[in-house]
Amino acid sequence: MKNDWNAETIRAGNALYGLRFQRLAMLLAVLFSSALGSVAQNPPPGGGGGGLPPVNYPPENLHSEAKRILGKILFWDEQLSSNDTMACGTCHIPTFGGADPRLGLHPGFDGVFATDDDVIGSPGVVRMDANKNPVNDPVFGFDPQVTDRAAQSYFASMFAPDNFWDGRATSQFIDPEDGITELIAQFGGLESQAVGPIVSSVEMAHEGRTWNDVRNKLMAATPLLMSSNIPADMQAAINANSSYPELFANAFGDSSINAGRIGFAIATYERTLLPDESPWDLYEDGDSSAMTAAQINGWETLRDHTICLNCHQPPLFTDNQFYNIGLRPSFEDEGRFNVTGNNQDHGRFKTPTLRNVGLKSTMMHVGWVTDVQDSIDFYNAGTQNTGHVQFTDDQSTIPGGGNYNNISMPAQFQPDIIDFLENGLTDPRVANEEFPFDRPTLLSELAQTPVIYADGSYEGMENGSESMPYNTLEEALVHVTEAGTIALSPGALGGAIVITQPVTLECSAGTATIGIE
């Protein structure tokens, strides 16, 4: 394996991109505390540039604007997590190709950091017990846990029968609350995927989180309360329907909130995210000036002189099938085999789309392949000394013939192919986060936000204090009933954060001031 990631750097990155904001949101959580009816409309026009096929909307979940905007709000609301630190979108940022710009280190199969089987995954939530108290995890301690696979891009995933790297989010969508009722017979892979992270104790949830917990939280939450720079369509929807029960009633005909409807709404939003305006799309639609000469040469070389497109089939640039390309030994992560139980599926993972690949900071399910050049180096590892190693036990054959360990892309082909993949397949609306790929700013993205850490240290506070607004006194004070200065002793603060030195909380009519004594 060629792995230039430094373990200590990545672990420090975990804290930088996750820990300080996790703890802030935990503290803020202390301070600021049916039937699947459908208002259905005809689906918007499907298909797009470059010959992308029409989008399949399941008949059980036809498109409506009210569902789309509800799904967009849910997808970007950090309050959907147990401790207000993670939105669905936290790991799927458009400017990074719909994947995660944060670099979290997972120790892999052996459970030991800084060994060859480490994975670059996504920081999630700190481990929490059923009461949302932080738990000292044996691997990550009180730091955010990290997923054991890299986050996939979700753009164009509406065309995949089954979702996630291993396809466990199936086309048949079963009611997550009873595990029995079929809500969608087929084409429901997005719905199946959307509901998984919300109850994952690594990604968004405390241990044992139930859908009743999720429902009760949404019923009391103000949509996007923690977000800023909210896009106009989202703000207009919230202005018209200022609570989640109202938004669900607008989308489904009544105010009931349940797991199926959450999945329906998020999937409806995701089906509108069609990245079909890349230079290649425009070129294929007849604009000969849309790509540069180098990009055209790269496209034609890739198409006519390589076998890359046997799996990365245009116009999706994926076949949505599962292969073992030999990144690591199968026993470390069995992938598709864990879903199907079929022996031929050991270590197989889904072919990722190459659309917007130039925006991503990590590649493949292991996350330590750094960019397109590094990906080519991996595929050339069987015939050239690239620093990578391919593990050939259980390795798949390439559709149409050939073996991954026999690939050899000549160096002179590579620059134009890389230019095509990194730039010719990038939709500028995705890169610039323009509608429909626009989004709010998440609280966890804001710099210089006041944070009190578990060891009593703090940052983002002038002279050891910082004032923060709250809507009502009741929101600010969980354990006291009137304004004043409250000394918080070392120990568990409201079951949300552990402190090791005294902290004061002073509340007045409109702000809460936190200070270190």
Brief overview:
The chain has 517 residues and is α+β, with helices and mostly antiparallel strands. The chain contains 14 helices and 14 strands. It has a four-stranded antiparallel β-sheet, with no helix packed on it. It has a two-stranded antiparallel ribbon with strand order 1-2. Strands 3-4 form a two-stranded antiparallel ribbon.
What is the element layout, followed by pairings?
Elements: H1 7-31, H2 65-75, E1 104-106, E2 119-121, E3 173-174, E4 182-184, H3 189-194, H4 211-220, H5 232-240, H6 244-252, H7 259-270, H8 279-284, H9 293-305, E5 322-323, H10 337-340, E6 349-350, H11 372-379, H12 414-424, H13 428-431, E7 451-452, E8 458-459, E9 465-469, H14 473-476, E10 484-488, E11 491-493, E12 497-499, E13 503-507, E14 511-516
Antiparallel strand pairs: 1-2, 3-4, 5-6, 7-8, 9-14, 10-13, 11-12, 13-14
Helix pairs in contact: 2-6, 2-7, 9-12
Structural class: alpha+beta
Total number of distinct structural domains: 3
Task: Compute the average pLDDT.
Answer: 83
CA-CA gap between termini: 50 Å
Superfamily (CATH H level) name of the largest domain: Cytochrome c-like domain
Reported for the largest beta sheet, the result is: 4 strands, antiparallel
Globular, elongated, flat, extended or rod-shaped: what is the shape? globular
Question: What is the fold-level CATH name, i.e. the topology of the largest domain?
Answer: Cytochrome Bc1 Complex, Chain D, domain 2
List keywords for this structure.
517 residues, alpha+beta, Cytochrome Bc1 Complex, Chain D, domain 2, 3 domains, four-stranded antiparallel beta sheet, two-stranded antiparallel ribbon, 14 strands, 9% strand
